[in-house]
Amino acid sequence: MGAEVIIVEVVGWTAAAIILAAYILLSLGKLEGRSYLYQWMNVIGAGGFIVNSGYNGAIPSAVLNIVWAAMGLFTLWSVWRARQSARAVIP
């Protein structure tokens, strides 16, 4: 097994651990669904899955994770905008 394969596997397993940790923390009430940390964990984890899935030719999984990452980025943007609007209202 070459170094490239090992790196892709480490990226995939790290992504799985990050997404699993995000879900566990959400389920335990330690994170909120619209928190920056939860969303960044999902975006980073999905990015790792995109690399691993794409490399291994699992195109449906890669596409799913592209959508997953896009949803996370959109949520981060919408939370940021809502917080900016709330700050603008408070004198």
**How many distinct folded domains?**
1
- How do the helices and strands follow one another from N- to C-terminus? HHH
- Work out the helix count: 3
As a percent range, the share of helical residues equals over 70%
Please tell me how large the radius of gyration is: 16 Å
Biggest β-sheet strands, sense, barrel? none
Strand content: under 5%
Question: N-to-C terminal Cα separation, in Å?
Answer: 60 Å
- Detail the poorly predicted runs: none
Overall mean pLDDT: 96
Number of E-state strands = 0
Short structural summary:
The protein is mainly α and 91 residues long.
Describe the structure.
Residues 9-83 form the CBU-0592-like domain. Keywords: Membrane, Transmembrane, Transmembrane helix. It holds the Pfam family CBU_0592. This is CBU-0592-like domain-containing protein. With 91 residues, the protein is mostly helical. The protein has one domain. The chain is built from three helices and no strands. It has helices spanning 3-27, 36-55, 59-89. Helix 1 (3-27) packs antiparallel against helix 2 (36-55). The protein starts with a helix and ends with a helix. The model has no long low-confidence stretch (mean pLDDT 96).
